[in-house]
Design a protein that fits this description.
Radius of gyration: 36 Å
Number of strands: 31
Distance between the termini: 31 Å
Strand content: 15-25%
Length: about 1000
């Protein structure tokens, strides 16, 4: 039979060479390892947008959104569709099932579907446009400000900067935010048009004819082609002003400047704006090519930025608005410090218990395993980030177990009289299978995470990968390198030989008494364990639930909502007021950076943070502070400032969230057919939430009703004047919103030319009555009041559908409660609510994601348990012995529940993963213990004596492994942050308590199942 240990002895020089390679390459790789702050997960979401100027929300939904939804639903990979219909705009978020990773074929299919449906949309619809880069993360954003320069000049400079940034290796895309769109506006007065007997349609036709770009053909002369290019397109603004307009009945030339005002300006109202440190800015969001090292790309970006700054005109300033590279470097540095601390603790404990020689031999296996694991991680493309480094820290306590067991066994065999090489080979041969089985069963505890089809599993995927790599690396080194080193360097003197099997020391005496009592009162002890597990399961229900914790960045966000119908100018005014207060260093010295986006959510600078869809009444503000400790208090100060100084705003001040879902927020979906009934039900839920003390940020995603004016066309009067409803719509839209006539091309710019009413007339509601309506049939005009009546109407201007059903989502948070607790407080009110037939309530957000993630995690757990049981049956060739091991697994609940309660930790997804890994560790202890019992039994001892002797011999290795694991988790508990606090507490307490109980339960069950 092949022996891995004997192979290592026969090829010792080869193994020494491989060790040198692992050390050298491992150290080199670690110094240049790809790094990022957090693990990535795939954002399986694309956005489809269609635009129809002037169309109401209800008409957008019926004529555009529904048709797009029906076509999208034909794609089988789509999990759900969230469709938003508002005035002018249809926005559909398409979400794909978590089990799909290759998204490009799906997005290509989506584009094809949207191309197919275009012919079914109303004439004049722009789009639909598919954005499948919605999940791209901006690793950096640069803010360009310029004192004394207008936005046109800033835009030209920003475009030049973008070109420079594209030359940096690893840069995928550079997107501009806050750049204002230029237009040439032709402002007309109804009275002036009536004076000339013109309609807007005649002006539009004249301008289009004057701005025609058509080829003039080619002439062939002497074998060469000469291209003929006639003039026709506008080459200057004056050329637009001097366009001659054919006026009916007028023989004198009339120019466009005589009829309208021609001005070059920014689009009004603006679509979006950006500010940095209170100054108008253009933000350049930089996304990175997938697979690149963010630290390397960040360093290159920094160099490029410094070079660009030197060439900027005087008055221009370029600064980082966000810079991920610096945050990643700090995060990796902090977690690497935790890793070094854990490594030091493990080495100290091993040397203390095993002595200097044996301790150094076992301890050396730890960094060797780490270096080998880094090599394999790099080959598999696993970056150093928060989760993978935490997995290395967790693995440190687990992987030392193999080395301890092997070294202890070799030392014992030498004391029994074998030579060093014989003892090493014999130990390796006897332990290679048990250690492999125990490693595989521990790995199987993490396999449900690998198989989980959920973003949370994808986010934590590297835990399972790293634990698998480190444990298998540890097993390989423990059965090859450790025996080689023990045979070469271990020394056992006469005193040690005499003490090796001496179990009369204090701890052994205490354990022997405990063991004797357990075996004498086996039934009482096992019943007590069952009761303890049931009590612990009940205690576990009292532990607060939280899916993922909040981020520990020294940042927070402000979402400002001025109410649906609010103009972007009003939103800008309030954001500038807020920025001025935030940047007042005499009041807020903690603030280091403020970047604000008005009318849009800016770039996705943080993976789990999705920017909101463009809306003029909304703004997003990102605030950086000097230290994380200031965040909570400063957020409260910000809430108070907004309450007293911007009371009309609905503001949500909150931190970023780790993991794939925003934490602390409850989301309740109300689903039903009638939008207005849904709106009323949502108001009732919001009223109930206000009754729960401390609850804030209570809002729904439809927003408030807005005031509209319904134009009731009198068909009789309209027919007499040859006015059709389309004439009314076209005239109103042209006057108030404006019609895009044609384009003016200036170098590489394409500037729209828009015809609309004069500013003074467009901003007066009374002017609506006298707006001239032009007949397409006769060319004559009549005042609107002659053919229509005006009915004020409060209507919903934003309608949302989820999977074809109208759905309004109410959200709220409470700083004193977790989402599960707040949901529990709201539940009695929901139970008392009487819903009409056809309406229902659904939990969304964190609660929904947590339930889906847990279902995905535990759905594969039975399979992993079965595979683990097969491994145990294979090793022991028995059913009883694997059953003993399996029956020890529930012991983890006792210590795990105590750990969460004592440490005041939350039971989240990561803590649940801690319970799974704890089960793998306890199985590991059970395997090692039962394997030794079988060996003692094979030597001819009675069952009870074999159990006692095996337990005493495995007592020290098991306790050492437990101690190294528990102490190794201290840096993660103390400094690892809230993300790992619960998981580390579960493993530390669960292992400490579970190991003690395993040392009693396994002997008790063994004597129960195995007879002499």
């Amino acid at each position: 039979m092949f022996s891995l240990t004997k192979f290592a002895f026969r090829n010792s020089c080869l193994f020494i060479l491989l060790l040198g390679f692992v050390i050298a390459m491992g150290l080199y790789q670690y110094a240049n390892f790809p790094s990022q702050e957090d693990p990535t997960f795939t954002v399986r979401e694309a956005v489809v947008t269609a635009f129809y100027p002037g169309m109401s929300a209800e008409r957008v939904e019926n004529l555009i959104t529904r048709r797009l939804e029906e076509k999208i639903r034909e794609i089988p990979e789509v999990e759900y569709i969230k469709a938003s219909s508002k005035t002018d705009l249809s926005v559909i978020h398409v979400n794909v099932y978590d089990k799909y990773y290759d998204l490009q074929p799906i997005w290509n299919q989506l584009r094809n579907k949207m191309d197919e449906v275009k012919s079914e949309l109303p004439t004049g619809t722009r789009g639909p446009v598919v954005n499948d880069d919605f999940g791209d993360v901006a690793i950096a954003s640069l803010a360009l400000t310029a004192n004394g320069f207008n936005l046109t000049e800033m835009y030209d400079t920003a475009v030049d900067i973008r070109r420079e940034l594209y030359t940096v290796d690893g840069v995928k895309r550079v997107t501009l935010y806050g750049a204002q769109e230029e237009v040439i506006v032709l402002s007309y007065s109804n009275a002036k048009l009536a004076e000339y007997g013109l309609s807007p349609q005649l002006l539009i036709a004249s301008l289009k004819q004057a701005n025609t770009i058509l080829p003039g053909g080619k002439v062939e002369i002497f074998g060469r082609q000469i291209i003929i290019e006639p003039s026709g397109n506008f080459t200057s603004e004056d050329e637009i002003r001097n366009v001659q307009i054919a006026v009916p009945g007028n023989t004198q030339p009339v120019y466009l400047r005589d009829i309208v005002e021609v001005e070059r300006e920014y689009i009004d109202p603006a679509k979006m704006m950006a500010f940095h440190m209170g100054e108008p800015a253009i933000i350049l969001g930089v996304s990175m090519v997938e697979g690149e090292n963010i630290l390397d790309v960040g360093a290159d970006l920094d160099k490029a930025m410094q070079a660009i700054e030197q060439d900027l005109p005087i008055g221009y300033n370029l600064e980082w608005a966000t810079f991920q590279s610096e945050l990643v470097e700090n995060t990796i540095k902090d977690f690497s410090g935790n890793l070094y601390q854990t490594l030091g603790i493990v080495l100290i404990v091993v040397i203390f218990f095993l002595g200097s020689r044996t301790g150094l031999i076992v301890g050396l296996g730890v960094p060797l395993t780490m270096l080998l694991a880094l090599l394999i991680m790099n080959m598999l493309g696993i970056a150093l980030q928060r989760v993978s480094i935490a997995a290395l820290i967790i693995s440190l306590g687990l992987l030392v177990d193999n080395g301890i067991v092997v070294a202890e066994d070799i030392k014992r065999r030498i004391c029994e009289g074998l030579s060093h090489e014989e003892a090493a080979i014999a130990s390796g041969n006897s332990l290679v299978l048990p250690l492999l089985t125990s490693s595989l069963t521990t790995i199987l505890a993490f396999v449900p995470l690998i198989l989980a089809d959920h973003r949370a599993g994808e986010y934590l995927y590297s835990i399972a990968q790293v634990v698998t790599i480190t444990l298998l690396s540890s097993w390989f080194l423990a059965t090859t390198v450790t025996p080689l080193m023990c045979a070469k360097f271990i020394k056992v003197d006469a005193k040690e030989s005499a003490e090796e099997n001496n179990y009369d020391t204090r701890f052994y005496v205490i354990y022997r008494r405990f063991l004797d009592w357990v075996l004498a009162h086996r039934a009482v002890f096992l019943i007590a364990m069952i009761v303890a597990m049931l009590v612990s399961a009940q205690l576990l229900k009292a532990v607060p639930k939280q899916f993922f914790p909040a981020s520990d960045r020294a940042q927070f966000t402000i979402y400002l909502d001025m109410g649906r119908g609010g103009s972007i100018n009003l939103t800008e005014e309030k954001v500038q007021l807020l920025d001025a207060w935030l940047l007042d260093q005499s009041i807020n010295p903690e603030v280091t950076n403020v970047v604000s986006y008005v009318g849009e959510g800016g770039p996705r600078f943080y993976l789990s943070l999705s920017p909101f869809d463009p809306d003029p009444h909304r703004a997003f503000v990102l605030v950086d502070l000097t230290a994380f400790k200031h965040v909570e208090g400063f957020m409260q100060r910000t809430r108070e400032f907004i309450l007293h100084n911007i009371p009309e705003a609905n503001a949500d001040v909150k931190t970023l969230s780790m993991g794939p879902t925003e934490v602390g927020v409850i989301m309740l979906r109300i689903v039903g057919p009638d939008p207005y009934m849904l709106y009323d039900l949502a108001q009732n839920v919001k009223t109930d939430l206000q009754k729960i003390p401390g609850t804030m940020s209570i809002e729904d995603d439809w927003g408030n009703k807005t005031l509209g004016v319904h134009i009731e066309v009198d068909q009789t009067q309209a027919n007499r004047s040859n006015i059709s409803p389309s004439d009314v719509a076209l005239s109103l839209n042209a006057f108030y919103t404006g019609s895009e006539i044609t384009d003016y091309r200036e170098q590489d710019k394409i500037i729209p030319i828009i015809l609309r009413g004069e500013q003074s007339e467009r901003t007066t509601i009374d002017r609506l009555r006298t707006v001239n309506v032009f007949s397409q049939t006769t060319g004559e005009s009549v005042p609107l009041l002659q053919v229509a009546e005006f009915v004020p109407d409060w209507k919903l201007s934003h309608l949302l559908r989820r999977n074809f059903e109208h759905t309004i989502t109410v959200s709220a948070r409470n700083p004193d409660m977790y989402a599960t607790q707040l949901a529990g407080e709201l539940t009695p009110y929901l139970d008392a609510m009487v819903l009409p037939p056809g309406y229902r309530l659904e939990w969304g957000g964190e609660l929904e994601d947590a339930a889906k993630a847990q279902k995905a995690l535990f759905s594969n757990l039975p399979l992993c348990l079965f595979l683990g049981f097969i491994l145990l049956v294979w090793q022991f060739n028995s059913f009883k012995r694997p059953l003993i091991v399996v029956l020890t697994i529930p012991l983890l609940i006792i210590g795990g529940a105590l750990g969460l309660l004592i440490m005041n930790a939350t039971l989240g997804f990561v803590a649940l993963l801690g319970f799974l890994s704890l089960g793998g560790i306890l199985i590991n202890n059970g395997i090692v213990l039962i394997d030794r019992m079988d060996q003692e039994l094979a030597e001819g001892k009675a069952v009870k004596e074999a159990v006692i002797q095996a337990s005493l011999k495995r007592f020290r290795p098991i306790m050492m492994t437990t101690l190294t694991t528990v102490l190794g988790l201290l840096p993660l508990i103390l400094f690892g942050g809230e993300m790992w606090y619960g998981m580390a507490s579960v493993i530390a307490y669960g292992l400490a308590v579970g190991t003690v109980l395993t040392l009693g339960v396994v002997p008790a069950l063994y004597t129960l199942f195995i007879k002499d």
